[in-house]
Amino acid sequence: MNMKAFIFDLDGVIVFTDKFHYQAWKKMADGMGIYFDEKINNRLRGVSRAESLEIILERYEGEPLSAERKAELMEEKNNTYRKLLSTMTPADVTDEVRNTLKELHERGCKLAIGSSSKNAKFILEKVELLDAFDAISDGNNITHSKPDPEVFSKAGEFLGEKPDNCIVVEDAYAGIDAAKAAGMTAVGIGDASGYDKADVKIQTFSELLKLAE
Ligand code: BG6
Ligand code: MG
């Protein structure tokens, strides 16, 4: 049997960095007097840093901001976010996730990351998972973020696999849409386990082993 290739979203699938994104954006928004809450933060899942800023600025009532000012705000947010990320350790990845990745590899599956984040490698280093993946496609090698298929299409190319052999694991609706647009099988976990466009819905990470038997 032709073993499958798995492409994993990072935030919300392998690690849980939502709280750090929230704290970092909240600090920036508070500094600008912009209302921001966890519900708005949920809309940022899977979307790029620049698009996230635009969503937050929907509540901004001041004069229009220049591109330079927006770049400064994104840098400020990213600096806060990276400080929070630097507190991560291998204990931030569950044994279930670590053991499932290992088992998939042992069964002959290829594994990649498909993340919109430019901090993906930094996060993987902190949790000591960099070696668990055969390829990393992230915010540094794409020009369009999810729901555009680019990040997953690139991950498939990096692995040398055709789309119909690739299984994407995602927690964001935009990520499921991106996987389908790439012609791949979409597995929804977490938030996306309630999304009807997901081909397979799972409640817990180790259920992926059933897709590699
Ligand atoms: C995604 C997150 O993985 O990465 C988004 O779900 C985030 O919330 C995006 O905006 C970009 O992340 P970064 O680390 O490049 O700012
Ligand atoms: Mg995610």
List keywords for this structure.
alpha/beta, 6-stranded parallel sheet, binds 6-O-phosphono-beta-D-glucopyranose
Question: Can you offer a commentary on this structure?
Answer:
The protein has 213 residues and is an alpha/beta fold. It has eight helices and six strands, in the order βαααααβαβαβαββ. The chain has a six-stranded parallel beta sheet with strand order 3-2-1-4-5-6. Helix 8 (173-181) links the parallel strand 4 (166-170) and strand 5. The radius of gyration is 17 Å and the shape is globular.
Q: What's the short version?
A:
By secondary structure, the chain is α/β, with parallel strands linked by helices.
What would you call the structural class? alpha/beta
Percentage of residues in helical conformation = 40-55%
First-last Cα distance = 9 Å
Radius of gyration: 17 Å
For the sheet with most strands, the description reads: 6 strands, parallel
- Record field, number of beta strands: 6
The parts where pLDDT drops under 50 for at least 5 residues are: none
| Strand residues, percent | 5-15%
In which order are the strands of the major sheet placed? 3-2-1-4-5-6
- Name the average pLDDT: 96
User: What small molecules accompany the polymer chains?
Assistant: 6-O-phosphono-beta-D-glucopyranose, magnesium ion
Overall body shape: globular
